[in-house]
Amino acid sequence: MKRIWLWALAFWAFTAAGEAPAGATEEMITFPSGKEPGSAFLVTPEGSGPFSAVIVIQEWWGVNDWIKDQARALAREGYMAMAVDLYHGKVAKRQEEAHQYMMGMSRDQAIRELRTAVVYLKRRPDVKPHKIGVIGWCMGGMYALTLATYDPTLAAVVAYYGAPPTEAADIERIQAPVLGNYGGKDEGPTPAQVRQFEAAMKKAKKSIDVKIYPGAGHAFANPNNPWKGYREAAAKDAWKRTLAFFEKNVKY
Question: Would residue 88 show up in a list of annotated catalytic residues for this protein?
């Protein structure tokens, strides 16, 4: 009986993670972005707003169930969460696919879609136009930091193991405070590269808070990590840091 009860509890926890927050709405949307429209998975909290908002940027897998769950988790905290679909409907199941999709993606188009996603949110009457943050994991972490070099109006940037910019001119253009969550055993970016970025940000008098988790490798926050590199304690701590950071810089 105990085993059955534990199995049921585990099943409930697994399925509940993929459900929309109570009272929230979720939908696939399109938004203007150059010649071709951009698309995104949008989760809107319960209520009429106006809401603070967060742009959610995918890993190299695409806007899969895990990324959608991160958007739902942010909506549960009261944010409108917009997961921009940089692969336009494609989701990788294998590493070879993910690598192919990432390498085949136009960097310029991705940046344009992320920048116009911010514009889309600003123009919504139910969004606070000056309270828009961005978060990304892996490839998405890199694009979150890159977006900050283009858009000085962002309220906050959270990067999980995303390759940081290295050019002084790019760092100088970052106006938003930055939170970084990185792995001590990550080989790309390495802890040394992260510390160099942190030092460059501080030299430029930018706001940055970096934590490197000992023993954690790349993608430590994703339980679906194919390299079995998920680190529960680090993932929970990084998420706690993320929510506190957004609450301070984006929510109010």
Answer: no
